[in-house]
Amino acid sequence: MRELDETLPSTFTSEGSKAHGVHPRDLYAWRDSGQIIELSRGVFRRTDAPPASYPDMIAVAHRSPRAVVCCISAAAIHDLTDEMPAATQIAVPTKSHTPVIAYPPVKVFRFGEASFELGLTSFEAGPGEPVRVYDGARTVVDLMRFRKRLGEQIAHSALHRYLRTSGSRAALLLDYAEVLGVFGPMRAALDVATAQ
Length: 196
Known about the structure:
Helix content is 42%, strand content 20%. By secondary structure, it is α+β, with helices and mostly antiparallel strands. The protein is elongated, with a radius of gyration of 19 Å. It starts with 10 loop residues before the first strand and ends with a helix. The relative contact order is 0.12.
């Protein structure tokens, strides 16, 4: 069996290992010997890599590179909720292929192409491993857009927590809400939240 390739990053795909000249036989021998773990089908992580805060999100990002962490999953990252969804919530553009990922479980939302990258940022899911996520303001507006589906309480709680963070911008919430078609509900919720 070949030694674990030191040039492989902390997390890599089977395709990425092929590019490093790793034969599938060696890849699965490393997995079976405990030198790497399989996070998701075709996505592996070195056991000697620094611990990752969000390994499931790293796996999803490798399986669907265009996807963006959204809604309650994004709210948890931004500390806008104490909820943790059973499945990682990701957004993909409306006309793109829907990723089929059995593990880790995912819930896919389809967002319009024109506003797909609105509020796009990234966070470090593991040391040196950025994952795409919507910023706090976009997350609050998305929760307001999907409040009937995800829960009014989650949307309003996230709004209150967002407004208490340093650097929160009510005007940005309204700008995003206008683009995303929820200006009225966002404005009403903001009026109530700032009146308290």
